[in-house]
């Protein structure tokens, strides 16, 4: 198989949403966010959310990339990079207005768990993050362990290094070796007690940072 990375477009939204949902479906924490939401309803919400992200990308530094199977044309991976940005007062007002138009969560979505995750991430960012790039990665379960993660990470890091920016992310333990290979280091940890949310035990994610040109 041969894969290539391209900038994602609005036309890719349905496929991007499918890949992202599939990649995190069995995550012991994130997978519980939509546990009580019918798949078709969650897909519709994810598409609306991604459309909104594209609409606001000029105001938040967001860039999304897709990994494509060159033989089939199938989108099999997605990466999301939020680069450092600055806004004028007018742009800040526009961003706040658009933020209020963000799609509503579907019925059954676990808002309490989401708020707990976001609060933990905010705490990490307050302590460690300044003008940095935030990174997210999803690879189709059917195409994992084929080098797609490294392909998407390396492609994005080339752009991050060109900008001279640091990068940060939150990683499940299984993904930590991938990020260590590309110059990230663990600086903190997020822990979520899944008992109150219907899950089992404490789920932890590594908070990782990378300096410009770090590997």
Secondary structure topology:
Blueprint (H helix, E strand, L loop, with lengths): L2 E5 L5 H12 L14 H17 L6 E8 L5 E8 L6 H11 L11 H18 L3 E8 L8 H15 L3 E6 L4 H6 L3 E9 L8 E9 L5
Parallel strand pairs: 4-5
Antiparallel strand pairs: 1-2, 2-3, 3-4, 5-7, 6-7
| Strands, count | 7
Low-confidence stretches: none
Number of helices: 6
Q: What average pLDDT do the residues reach?
A: 92
Gap from first CA to last CA? 26 Å
Strand percentage lies at 15-25%
Q: Report the helical percentage.
A: 25-40%
Task: Characterize the overall form.
Answer: globular
Main structural class: alpha+beta
Widest beta sheet: strand line-up: 1-2-3-4-5-7-6
Q: What is the H/E order?
A: EHHEEHHEHEHEE
The radius of gyration over CA amounts to 17 Å
Largest sheet: 7 strands, mixed
Report on this structure.
This protein is α+β, with helices and mostly antiparallel strands. It is built from six helices and seven strands. A hairpin with a 5-residue loop joins strand 2 (62-69) and strand 3.
Write out key terms for the chains shown.
single chain; 215 residues; alpha+beta; seven-stranded mixed β-sheet; 7 strands; 25% strand
In short:
This protein has 215 residues and is α+β, with helices and mostly antiparallel strands.
């Amino acid at each position: 198989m041969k894969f290539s990375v391209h900038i994602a477009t609005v036309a890719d939204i349905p496929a991007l949403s499918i890949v992202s949902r599939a990649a995190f479906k069995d995550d012991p924490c994130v997978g519980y966010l939509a546990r009580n939401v019918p798949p078709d309803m969650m897909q519709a919400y994810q598409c609306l959310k991604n459309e909104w992200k594209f609409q606001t990308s000029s105001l938040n530094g967001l860039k999304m990339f897709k990994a494509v199977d060159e033989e089939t044309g199938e989108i099999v991976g997605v990466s999301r990079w939020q680069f450092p940005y600055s806004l004028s007062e007018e742009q800040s007002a526009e961003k706040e207005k658009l933020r209020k138009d963000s799609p509503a969560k579907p019925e059954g979505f676990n808002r309490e768990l989401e708020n707990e995750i976001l609060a933990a991430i905010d705490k990490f960012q307050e302590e460690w993050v300044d003008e940095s790039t935030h990174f997210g990665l999803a690879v189709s379960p059917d195409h994992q362990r084929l080098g797609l993660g490294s392909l998407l990470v390396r492609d994005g890091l080339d752009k991050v290094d060109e900008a001279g920016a640091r990068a940060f992310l939150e990683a499940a333990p299984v993904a930590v070796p991938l990020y260590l290979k590309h110059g990230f280091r663990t600086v903190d940890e997020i822990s979520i007690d899944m008992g109150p949310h219907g899950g089992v035990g404490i789920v932890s994610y590594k908070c990782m940072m990378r300096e410009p040109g770090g590997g």
